[in-house]
Amino acid sequence: MTPRWQSNNMMAAVGHSAQDESAREIFVFGPFRLDASQRRIERDGSPLQLSGRAFEILLALVRQAGNVVSKTDLIAKTWPGADVEDNSLRVHIAALRKILGDGNGGARYLSTVSGQGYCFVAAVSRPDQRQSAPINPTYHHNLPAHPRHMVGREQAIQDISDKLRAQRFVTVVGPGGIGKTTVVVSTGHALLAEFAGHVHFVGLGETDNAALVPAIVASSFGLLARSNDPTSGLATFLSDKRMLLILDCCEHVIEAAAALAERLHQAAPELHIVATSRELLRVEGEFTYRLAPLPSPPEKAALKAATAIAYPSVKLFVERATAGGGEFALTDANASDVGNLCRRLDGIPLAIELTACHVGTYGARAMVQLLDQHLNLLWEGRRTALPRHRTLRATIEWSYNLLSEPERVVLGRLSVFVGSMTLDAARSVAAATEDDDTILAIIDGLVAKSMLALNTGSQPTRYRLADSTRAYAQEKLAASGDASAISRRHAGYFLGLLEKITGESDRNLSMAADEFANVRAALTWCFSDQGDRRAGVALAAASIPLFFKRSLLAECELWVTRAIEALDETNGSIRHGLVLHTALGATRMLTGQLDELGAKHLSRALELTEKIGDIPGQIRLIDQLHLLQLFVGKYDDALGTARRGEAIALAGNDSAAVARMRVLLSISCQYLGKFVASRSYIEAAMLHPGLEGDIHSGLTLEYPKRAQITFARILWLQGHPDQATQMVRRAISDVIAANHPVMFCRALPWAFDVFFWNGDMDDCEEHIDRFIVEARGHNLAILQMVGEAMKGITLLARNEIGTGLALLRGAIEKLQSRSFGAVAGLRTPLAEALAAADHCDEALDTIDQAIAQARHCNFMMDMPDMLRTKAEVLMHQRNPDLSQAELSLVQALDLARHQGALGYELRAAVGLARLWQRQGRRQEAHDMLAPVYQQFTEGFQTRGLKMAGQLLAELTPQRSCSLAAR
């Protein structure tokens, strides 16, 4: 790829003198010309108006073109010292996109990189650099040919050039295959004019004899015959010359190369040196440039082709995959797989090139699976490449052979880690007989030699092996015969870590989430044929809070099931059995397996808690049994379970547990239609200040603000719609702020009814799509179906009858097949929609099924509304059955009054008043509806009360209409 300052866009700068241009920092991209010193941007010669901050943002992005600039950095540059939120940055980015015409006619300038920041993706040229060399230079140099397929290194070349101008001596450091040679050769070509063609390249990769290094460099200048001391002769020859000397591939002759470079740097004040090495030369005058991997898409990024190609690693992959007439094409369908490949290859250009060459044969998805199974270290690259670059194995082997024996041993041991590791983890697992100081020195050496990457930006500092290096080192570890012992030590370390944080703060659990890949790897080994099942049982039990924290319930079920199977053969402890049976019952329930097996595991866990006198454990299990009974429609049993929990909490003198059990009692009473008792329980529960004290512990199925949402429902049912709405909005905001998918998916359906009852679907519709995605992503099968039902109801509320009906009907059928108990309540909006669509026979069958099912399991919470809905269906028929409709409405009215459900009483009263109005019984209708309406003190802007007020106005004689005017 041609460096940006040599691109064909140079014609955009015509009309500005070369002398003026060279004195200023100017960028050209598309039809735009940006002058940093003049703070001016033009489009086709016409100035554009940009705010000062928008200009600063654009300038920062253009200077880093092709690289991702974090939001934090952009905010720091644009609002130095100010506390500014991301929204302000997004506003200016949006303004820039509009002014630049981003997206118009296929033009692309700014790309949002999810979870990272923003990237300037258009080609940028620098007129000052471009015009400093004649069009057809005639310089004599020995540089290799200019790399034609370099991607994403423009800024690196610029940075190295700047360092060379300022410091004279730069060592470009990085692991094998990162592209050091390509970058320094390109830098040499870019600086030819600046050094009047005096750029000299010496490749040291072909010699194994360090003693010959001075002679090799001297002979490249034709000096060998002139002196018996090559180093002195070189120093004398270069002492008065202004030149750029490139010493490539120094790591295997590091001592000799370092000594020579230091001597030449001191002897020749006009000599500039750039060296490449997998470790620093560590000499006086040396400055470091660590060449970073090519930016790759973040993990789990949902990519389209247009966004993926903005990442240099993906761009390189596509170029190499299509080179030579390959049939591969980047599409929206394979963009995420390609992004995953590039990330898995650590953004290392050589690894990407070697892998991309085979994508036409296997396909991107299959190659991801191949990487999962084992990284192919033998795929070959160009025949003309240096031997050390023809395969990944050769590249890694080159570096491996430069390590000392202790470094090789420790590298093999570190290959047991998946992803990154802390220093403490690395020391604990890699140390056998070595003392701490020795291990630290070895780890530092591996970092220095670019075999182990160091991320100083994390807290604590973390280390990581590139996947290709790890695969190679694993082979060496296996050949050593120590793999089993190291894997056992690895599993033991993470078992100790998890046991240490069990029961500690949610913050510590969040920190442990960084270790998840290693915990998973340790579990895999423990339950393998070569593993340690006893350790696996303990590790599975200890990792359950981590799985719940990450909402990975299906995977949690897998490991817990294996651990329970191994309990007997390993004589596992009661406490291990307790947490394993608890977790299995909970995960089966939340993933939609509403069967006796889940209840059996919860009951077994409850027996174990009673056996050891663990009252908090009993309370958690009561909570889970209660939820399972609600899911399967055993509402009377759920009330009994809640009462059992209250008795246990009272006997244990645990006031917080008593409060939690009273929340369950309130919920049970709601399902049973006992609203007065429900309010009494929830008000008592909310008096306890520590009600939500342990919500974030790993095994709980509670969620923030469960009590408040329960209370909000009671408030609406008892005739306080405004208070209910305000409370439920605040509660859902708090749940979302907790950033826990399972908790969010537990909370929203319980809150949804308040929005639905008030007719305020807009208030929660924005959350439902996220709810469905989270439930699907975390395998929460039952909750996903409930989410689809909620989505169907919202579509029906917007009069999207066809789509809404299909979605709601399908969700109900799936829930019914899973024996979900509360499905009766979802049939009510379905029946109303069917009737509105003139499918009255189906509507009547639907509401009759709902009423029968509700009566069978004593689901009385929605019974008044079911009876009202049946009346509405009967009145909507082609031959209305008004007498049966009136009977249903009277029953609904009486039941709502008996339950103390003023909200439902109003709905039934409105329906009955309309029926009597239709029959000419206006006064009866008025006298029945008015007292119900008068009981309300708020909510007069809600749909239900507006409707009642309008109906009363129609029924009220002109002389006494003051009531309806409220």
From TrEMBL:
Q: Which InterPro entries match?
A: HTH_77, OmpR/PhoB-type_DNA-bd, P-loop_NTPase, Sig_transdc_resp-reg_C-effctor, TPR-like_helical_dom_sf, WH-like_DNA-bd_sf
Ranges where the OmpR/PhoB-type domain occurs: 24-122
What keywords does the record list, in alphabetical order? Answer: DNA-binding
Q: Which ranges does the entry annotate as DNA-binding region?
A: 24-122
What is an example of a GO molecular function annotated in this UniProt entry?
Answer: DNA binding
Q: Which CDD domains match?
A: trans_reg_C
* BP terms from Gene Ontology: phosphorelay signal transduction system; regulation of DNA-templated transcription
Question: What name has this protein been given in UniProt?
Answer: Transcriptional regulator
